Amino acid sequence: MNSLHRQFPPDFVWGVATSSFQIEGAATEGGKGESIWDRFCRQPGAIADASNGDVACDHFHRLDEDLDLIASLGVNAYRFSVAWPRVQADGHGAFNPQGLDFYERLVDGLKARGIQPWLTLNHWDLPQGLQDRGGWFDRDTVHRFVDYARHVQARLGDRLAGLTTHNEPWVIATLGHDKGIFAPGIQSRRVAAQVSHHLLLSHGLALQALRADGARSELGIVLNLSSTVPATAMPADIAAAKLADGHGRRWYTDPLFKGSYPEDALADLGADAPVVQAGDMGVIAQPMDYLGVNNYTRSVIAASGEDWNAKGRGLPVSDMDWEIYPQGLTDLLVQLKHDYARLPKVYITENGGAFPDAGLVNGRVQDDDRIDYLRTHIAAVASALQQGVPMAGYMVWSLLDNFEWASGYLKRFGIVHVDYDTQVRTPKASAEWYREFLRQWRG
């Protein structure tokens, strides 16, 4: 580990991250309503192994065990999400006290163990009751989200360190409403563009409402961002990479920090561009306390599309076939600092790797590839910090092996192995490495 731990200040936030649908299970218990992912999992062919999140890691029933597990790692933060349909079954109407009780036990359990709670309001599992009304394409969902945000803060906000509005709106819009490979499975570029606008608008309105209600936690949003580079020095590849960056990174960061959508992406959308009402962009550009960045790989773009041939470039790949290139994380963070004078402090809210773990051998999972991934990416964060990027924290994705969306249970990101038949948790060698790194950091 050498001196890597010495490159971070004593107030740095170190955590692990999860999301509700991927770990909780208890899909129909305690008054929980149906989410769009519950519905999507029932579509033939939607999930690679034909699985679902009905049980997942059974976190709902194993909360205390999992809180003890988190504490054993020596982290000072835990990022989790609230399942909106667990606290408001249909996304409108009455709130469910049983669901809120669960998250209160979670937050209080973290606080009792000296761990900061970082709550995400929307990690993709929109109530199906709202989807039936039009989902994120319907502007009314924006206001339902604000009501939900206010209700959750009223119950839990006094004990939170951070409150995030949305996790990865690009994924919701593009994979869920343009490509159709994630819930709700819609394929329309026009719908996706409008969805992206409504997600950003609901973020801004929620921040206004939460602050008006006396927010005591830090408020922000989490974006999945990548360094985007051309595959070659050919002008066509350079132009394609710039446009891809416009549709990906800048489509979300420009409105948040400049109050406008990028002109190149708008021009490319043409008639598919979102309907923007007067005042919307000013609302979206509300000052934030932090920006959460989820990063796993970089994007290499050719005129013909994304170049996935990392092996051809001599680079390793994860089990997701994503290129492993830690320098890309530093490049991304430095680019954000360069582009946005209003950039707030930045947390890496997800970073990690899926690898084909060999499974338990004599009670251990020796995941050296994941250790190397974490070590080199934490070093990439340290490099950004040294270059003046206002880095404030790093959270590993993920605490547990879990339901990996359209991949089902075929991909394992966890630093803790989960036997899905028995629900036994076994910290992997990467968890032991992280624990020792944090021990040295604390000194």
Would you mind describing this structure in some detail?
It is a single chain. By secondary structure, the chain is of the alpha/beta class. 40% of the residues lie in helices and 14% in strands. It has helices at 20-23, 36-40, 63-72, 84-87, 97-112, 128-131, 140-156, 169-177, 189-212, 235-258, 263-269, 280-284, 327-339, 368-386, 429-442; strands spanning 13-17, 77-81, 116-122, 162-167, 218-224, 228-230, 290-294, 299-302, 305-306, 345-350, 391-397, 416-418, 425-427. Helix 14 (368-386) links the parallel strand 10 (345-350) and strand 11. Helix 7 (140-156) runs parallel beside helix 9 and helix 10 crosses helix 11 (263-269). The longest helix has 24 residues, at 189-212. The protein is globular. The protein starts with 12 loop residues before the first strand and ends with a helix. The model has no long low-confidence stretch (mean pLDDT 98).
Provide a brief overview of the structure.
By secondary structure, the chain is an alpha/beta fold.
Mind sketching the topology for me?
Blueprint: E1 13-17, H1 20-23, H2 36-40, H3 63-72, E2 77-81, H4 84-87, H5 97-112, E3 116-122, H6 128-131, H7 140-156, E4 162-167, H8 169-177, H9 189-212, E5 218-224, E6 228-230, H10 235-258, H11 263-269, H12 280-284, E7 290-294, E8 299-302, E9 305-306, H13 327-339, E10 345-350, H14 368-386, E11 391-397, E12 416-418, E13 425-427, H15 429-442
Parallel strand pairs: 1-2, 1-11, 2-3, 3-4, 4-5, 5-7, 6-8, 7-10, 10-11
Antiparallel strand pairs: 8-9, 12-13
Helix pairs in contact: 7-9, 8-9, 10-11, 13-14, 14-15
Keywords: Glycosidase, Hydrolase
EC number: 3.2.1.21
Protein name: GH1 family beta-glucosidase
